[in-house]
């Protein structure tokens, strides 16, 4: 009996201790909360000058978040819609792609079925006024253009248009509507039945877009090249849906762990239509987050081959908290792990975001982009794939199965200048604006343009002269190494402006080393996970 009473007393003591500890923590939180409120009150009421309380609060919250990990963020209320648009997959506007040429808003292309096409706006049109206000020659900026042309669905905007061949300005009344933001930048089928898909971001519509692209005809692809280079991530659900297409029922796609976040495990449901289709995934140093989830899952299950360079290393789970004024807090609550247990996230110290991003840029200086042997991983970060027991590494990004070094052979001072200053894009925009009708009359389609058009001496000389006018001087003996690559870009950008992104990637991929390696592997059926053996050993050597 005495023992029971003693145990009861001990239990009560532990409960009271836990309660006291919990109360102590709560009391500490309350003290900090009131301290912040008191500081804001004192500043608002007693500071020398009038202060903007909203702006002050925004800065205070942003400073608190900056003391955490590099990926937690605070988004003020007036920026939330703009930040969410690329992931939601649409915005409301008039439905054009534009460029600002000679301080004039020029229509590059019209989105099919969109509001502008419905009223007769054409590629090459110059929008010189909006609702009676002249906008041409007023130091136009992209944010200003968005302000003029975007707006609530159903609202109307009157635009004044100058069209080549017409003597007078024409006016068009456009009713704004929802405009889709596609996350698939390009998708096409090669002559071998291999489908190339370039995914720019993981948005709410990404899975539907990819499935539509791959199954636009009643024929299963012979192989898939999933290009995730430069893809910084997006919605987790989109990554899970896409990975699920390639994996067998019960295959773990990822799991998460965090201090106060319940462990989450996501498995493939076995209904994917690409489970037996060879796949090559292209990644680079700018592939992050959702890109790393997909490539990590396929690599861990030996399901496909990963080609390129080590990915960024962003493996933190953000949860969105909506604040009272419409602002948002995206707070890191957990870490992602690949199916084998690897941590995707690169190392960081709290509150030292600059050092974190500096370490990423230091990869170039260390030679990592040119030589895979410059990357070293300790044995503690060594893992095994789940089928073939190949060695893979954690601790920061996904290391590809086949390393393709970055080609910097054509980098020259001139090359860097024309890209950094936007000279190349501006020149091509002006050229296609001037030559649009001539190109359309001279070439039947994009394929004939690719085969027949050349950047000749006259066009190259015109580009060099334009670059010089923008203080980018071409020196033959120093910069000639970049001439061929810049000529290729000039032709590629003309194709993009005239025939769209699909045609642009078809042309540029003809000389893309990663794409060529992927095609070589898929054509020879040297892909992990389908033959039950390490079929890539010859290709890797």
TrEMBL record:
<dbReference type="InterPro" id="IPR041489">
    <property type="entry name" value="PDZ_6"/>
</dbReference>
<dbReference type="InterPro" id="IPR029045">
    <property type="entry name" value="ClpP/crotonase-like_dom_sf"/>
</dbReference>
<feature type="signal peptide">
    <location>
        <begin position="1"/>
        <end position="24"/>
    </location>
</feature>
<dbReference type="GO" id="GO:0004175">
    <property type="term" value="F:endopeptidase activity"/>
</dbReference>
<dbReference type="InterPro" id="IPR005151">
    <property type="entry name" value="Tail-specific_protease"/>
</dbReference>
<protein>
    <submittedName>
        <fullName>S41 family peptidase</fullName>
    </submittedName>
</protein>
<dbReference type="InterPro" id="IPR001478">
    <property type="entry name" value="PDZ"/>
</dbReference>
<dbReference type="GO" id="GO:0006508">
    <property type="term" value="P:proteolysis"/>
</dbReference>
<dbReference type="Pfam" id="PF17820">
    <property type="entry name" value="PDZ_6"/>
</dbReference>
<dbReference type="GO" id="GO:0007165">
    <property type="term" value="P:signal transduction"/>
</dbReference>
<comment type="similarity">
    <text>Belongs to the peptidase S41A family.</text>
</comment>
<dbReference type="InterPro" id="IPR004447">
    <property type="entry name" value="Peptidase_S41A"/>
</dbReference>
<keyword id="KW-0720">Serine protease</keyword>
<dbReference type="InterPro" id="IPR036034">
    <property type="entry name" value="PDZ_sf"/>
</dbReference>
<feature type="domain" description="PDZ">
    <location>
        <begin position="89"/>
        <end position="139"/>
    </location>
</feature>
<dbReference type="GO" id="GO:0008236">
    <property type="term" value="F:serine-type peptidase activity"/>
</dbReference>
<dbReference type="Pfam" id="PF03572">
    <property type="entry name" value="Peptidase_S41"/>
</dbReference>
<dbReference type="GO" id="GO:0030288">
    <property type="term" value="C:outer membrane-bounded periplasmic space"/>
</dbReference>
<keyword id="KW-0732">Signal</keyword>
<keyword id="KW-0645">Protease</keyword>
<keyword id="KW-0378">Hydrolase</keyword>
């Amino acid at each position: 009996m005495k023992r029971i009473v003693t145990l009861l007393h001990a239990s009560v003591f532990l409960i009271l201790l836990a309660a006291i500890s919990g109360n102590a923590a709560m009391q500490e939180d309350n003290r900090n909360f009131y301290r912040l409120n008191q500081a804001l009150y004192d500043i608002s009421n007693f500071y020398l000058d009038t202060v903007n309380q909203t702006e002050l609060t925004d800065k205070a919250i942003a400073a608190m978040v900056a003391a955490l990990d590099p990926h937690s963020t605070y988004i003020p209320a007036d920026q939330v819609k703009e930040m969410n648009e690329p992931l939601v997959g649409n915005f409301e506007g008039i439905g054009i792609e534009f460029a600002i040429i000679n301080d004039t808003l020029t229509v590059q292309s019209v989105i099919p079925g969109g509001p502008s096409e419905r009223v007769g706006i054409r590629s090459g049109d110059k929008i010189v006024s909006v609702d009676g206000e002249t906008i041409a020659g007023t130091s136009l900026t992209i944010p200003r253009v968005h302000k003029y042309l975007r707006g609530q669905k159903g609202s109307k905007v009157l635009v004044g248009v100058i069209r080549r061949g017409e003597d007078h300005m024409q006016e068009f009344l456009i009713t704004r509507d929802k405009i889709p933001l596609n996350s698939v930048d390009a998708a096409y089928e090669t002559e071998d039945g291999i489908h190339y898909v370039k995914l720019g971001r993981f948005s709410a519509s990404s899975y539907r877009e990819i499935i539509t692209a791959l199954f636009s005809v009643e024929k299963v692809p012979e192989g898939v090249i999933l290009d995730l280079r430069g893809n910084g991530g997006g919605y987790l659900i989109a990554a899970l849906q896409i990975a699920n297409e390639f994996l067998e029922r019960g295959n773990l796609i990822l799991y998460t762990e965090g201090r106060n976040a319940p462990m989450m495990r996501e498995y493939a449901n076995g209904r994917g239509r690409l489970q037996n289709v060879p796949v090559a995934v292209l990644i680079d140093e700018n592939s992050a987050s959702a890109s790393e989830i997909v490539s990590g899952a396929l690599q861990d299950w030996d399901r496909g081959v990963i080609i390129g360079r080590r990915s960024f290393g962003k493996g933190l789970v953000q949860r969105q908290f909506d604040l009272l004024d419409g602002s948002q807090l995206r707070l890191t609550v957990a870490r992602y792990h690949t199916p084998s247990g690897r941590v995707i996230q690169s190392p960081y110290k709290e509150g030292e975001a600059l050092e974190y991003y500096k370490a990423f840029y230091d990869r170039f200086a260390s030679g990592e982009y040119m030589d895979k042997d410059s990357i070293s991983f300790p044995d503690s970060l060594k893992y095994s794939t789940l089928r073939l027991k190949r060695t893979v590494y954690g601790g920061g990004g996904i290391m590809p199965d086949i390393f393709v070094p970055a080609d910097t052979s054509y980098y020259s001072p001139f090359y860097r200048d024309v890209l950094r200053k936007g000279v190349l894009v501006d020149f091509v925009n002006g050229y296609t604006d001037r030559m649009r009708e001539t190109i359309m009359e001279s070439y039947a389609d994009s394929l004939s343009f690719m085969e027949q058009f050349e950047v000749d001496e006259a066009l190259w000389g015109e580009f060099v002269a334009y670059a010089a006018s923008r203080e980018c001087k071409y020196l033959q003996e120093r910069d000639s190494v970049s001439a061929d690559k810049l000529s290729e870009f000039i032709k590629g950008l003309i194709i993009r402006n005239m025939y769209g992104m699909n045609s642009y990637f078809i042309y540029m991929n003809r000389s893309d080393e990663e794409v060529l390696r992927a095609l070589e592997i898929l054509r020879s059926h040297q892909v992990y996970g389908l033959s039950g053996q390490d079929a890539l050993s010859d290709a890797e050597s």
